[in-house]
Amino acid sequence: MRSLRKTVLLAVLVSAVLVLALLHSWPARGYTTVDVSRQPGSLAERHLEALLPEPDRRLGNIPYRVRDSVAGLLARNGCVCEGKSAAVNLPFAQLLFPRVSAHSLHTAFEASELEEMKKRRAEEYQGFQMRTQTPADMLIIAEANNPLQYPTQGVEVRPLKTVLIPGLALRDVPRENYSVNISATLGTLNVAAEVERVKVRGDGEMRLTLSSALLPNLNRQLQFVTYTNTLFHPSTADTVQLETDGHQAAFVIKIRHGVTPKLYNAGPKGEYNVSALVTIATKTFLRYDKLRDLIDSVRRYYPTVTIVIADDSENPKTVSGPHIEHYIMPFGKGWFAGRNLAVSQVTTKYLLWVDDDFIFTSNTKLEKLVDVLERTTLDLVGGAVREATGYTATYRQTISIEPGEEDGDCLHMRRGYHHIIQGFPNCVIADGVINFFLARTDKVQQVGFDPRLARVAHLEFFIDGLGSLHVGSCGDVIVNHATKIRLPWVGPSESDKTYSKFRYPPASSDARQTNNGLLFFKNRFQCYTHN
């Protein structure tokens, strides 16, 4: 009997612990983001004042009382890296009361190099912001003319977070009582502070009404209106409706996570260290003699630059040496599949794409291409290829898409470029460039190469990147193309015959039809035109 009681008692204790653990780990509703342990007090008031726009002299003397529970939700321009230890030391304590750990990342560097690392990171981040921010991100307030004043763009909130709505106001329209209704669909509205002689209805709900007999007091209250996103979506927008007697307006609040920067530590500034900034990537198939000539020519000018090689030959040969990475693929896997593999292994800020039959010369100045990307917002810049005949090609293309109807859109490709780049007279802006280009690694990885494009493809990459890749071309950085001229008495080798069979399929082949099929279905084109 005692044994049975002990067993029952033990079972009850275990069950109680499991129930507590289950209750503790049960997911809470997504919009419960208030930290109830925070006691902002006067700090919240100072923070709220810092977030307000330049005060209107007519409103500055109107008193208000801060709502700590709402103002405490507003984002601060600073984060604190603090951990919390377990409250109690009991069995299952980590499950019931998990410890929050914090790690200061600056400890990865010695004290002597930390300041230099911070400076370098700040410079990289500044360049990142210049490339990713546009005028569409700026806050613009529509001055009252209907008579509502509201932000036309530039209001943004992180998912499930709270933000002050800037610029709300009602301009002079004589009446006995003033009232403004504000409504949202993906979040709730509230006020971070209460202004005297203003009535607030619907605070904490999707529809908020503010009313007062005093227009200055109402406008002061409108400065404290907050929006809290309650329906999680990593990238969307809420259309907020604003109305007053007979007048309506609408504006958008973007709901999205901030863009996480991807910065590259290329070492101290000064002359460009190409080995630290650039990785050369190429795809080879059977042509080991030409690949070796390429490597030898690179080493003549850039002995320590890493070369990444993707190889889908049937009987791959060993390609080794300092700063060489050779990756073997299944036989005949394809051109764009190999590009994906090579690019996926690049860890430097930039990658240089070359064909395996290119030859570096004294005119192949990678520093020039690096300088263009470092000093502009371009993502990719092409060079020029000189043929054995002496002809130099840049293969600049403009690409445009003309909207269509049910049958799809029309793709138009033309030789040429858009305009010259200021400060770089030998460089222009285009949409597609030759198969010799330097690019930001993360941007190329973002667009990617469709592995279904096996042997015949190039501009398809730029078509997929249209709208996200900012492309340029510089004609004064030149790489040579290995000669294709053969002496009459020297016939093609078996390797050359096999290569040509894959590389130059007839127009009626499956490879050509695959390209057209992808343009039709994947890109929703009904036709394309080119010259």
Give a short overview.
The protein is α+β, with helices and mostly antiparallel strands. It folds into 2 domains: 47-75 and 113-263, no CATH class; 274-529, Spore Coat Polysaccharide Biosynthesis Protein SpsA, Chain A, CATH 3.90.550.10.
What fraction of residues sit in β-strands?
A: 25-35%
Sequence stretches where pLDDT stays below 50 over 5 or more residues: 21-43
Q: What do we call the CATH topology of the largest domain?
A: Spore Coat Polysaccharide Biosynthesis Protein SpsA, Chain A
Per CATH, the class of the largest domain reads Alpha Beta
By secondary-structure content and strand pairing, the structural class works out as: alpha+beta
Overall average residue pLDDT:
82
Total number of helices: 14
Which shape, going by the Cα principal axes? Answer: globular
**How would you sum up the major sheet?**
11 strands, mixed
Number of structurally distinct domains: 2
CATH superfamily of the largest domain: Spore Coat Polysaccharide Biosynthesis Protein SpsA, Chain A
Distance between the termini: 95 Å
CATH architecture of the largest domain: Alpha-Beta Complex
Q: Report Rg.
A: 31 Å
What is the number of E strands?
28
Helix content: 25-40%
